[in-house]
């Protein structure tokens, strides 16, 4: 497992052409990405509906990239088994969702996967502090989740990234800090300067005319 100081580039499939998803998955792989970020939305926890476990199963055979699954769903506990069976490598759940957070995180790890915890821009870091010792990744959302192509919310989110990085080193923890939403070649450097190392980007990577150079540029 890469350490939390290595910059990891994770294109979000949300921004790809779903009409040729197999090709788009391979394109991210060939462009030199590290992980593939899958934005699962249920139309209840967030205003949009994207895809579910069956779509993840369809993606799985097209790449050996880490499938980094972001569950923007109200009941991640209820669907966990289905996403594990679908071939996810990492599953991130929201602290704001309706579940027993510690239980869900433990169940993800018990299945042999890496577990992540996400918080929305309006959610205080206090909400996730009790769980920092039992996660492999903290996802600090840098937009209000639901749609790609939004603007990076620096003021509301960078202080949380910096504080999480400080706590991590004080406590000798090793979780990745991931940012997701409005990440491009400029905002990625702001996020990195504050302590983030896993960079999720949809528009800036799948929307780029030349994905390999966009990935390279985002790697810094
Ligand atoms: C939540 C989604 C988006 C997506 C990235 O809405 O998680 O943030 O991954 O979208 P871009 O990179 O297009 O802002
Ligand atoms: Zn996401």
Describe the structure.
It is a single chain. This protein is of the alpha/beta class and 220 residues long. It has a single domain (8-219), classed as Aldolase class I (TIM Barrel, Alpha-Beta Barrel). It has eight helices and eight strands; from the N terminus they run βαβαβαβαββαβαβαα. The longest helix is centred in the C-terminal third of the chain and has 18 residues, at 154-171. The chain starts with 7 loop residues before the first strand and ends with a helix. Bound molecules: D-xylitol-5-phosphate and zinc ion. The site of D-xylitol-5-phosphate (DX5) has 21 residues, from strand 8 and helix 7. The site of zinc ion (ZN) has 6 residues, from strand 2.
Give the secondary structure arrangement, pairings included:
Blueprint: E1 8-11, H1 21-30, E2 35-41, H2 53-59, E3 66-72, H3 76-86, E4 90-94, H4 101-110, E5 114-119, E6 137-141, H5 154-171, E7 176-180, H6 187-194, E8 198-201, H7 203-206, H8 211-218
Parallel strand pairs: 1-8, 2-3, 3-4, 4-5, 5-6, 6-7, 7-8
Helix pairs in contact: 2-3, 3-4, 5-6
Bound molecules: D-xylitol-5-phosphate and zinc ion.
What's the gist of this structure?
The protein has helices at 21-30, 53-59, 76-86, 101-110, 154-171, 187-194, 203-206, 211-218, and strands at residues 8-11, 35-41, 66-72, 90-94, 114-119, 137-141, 176-180, 198-201.
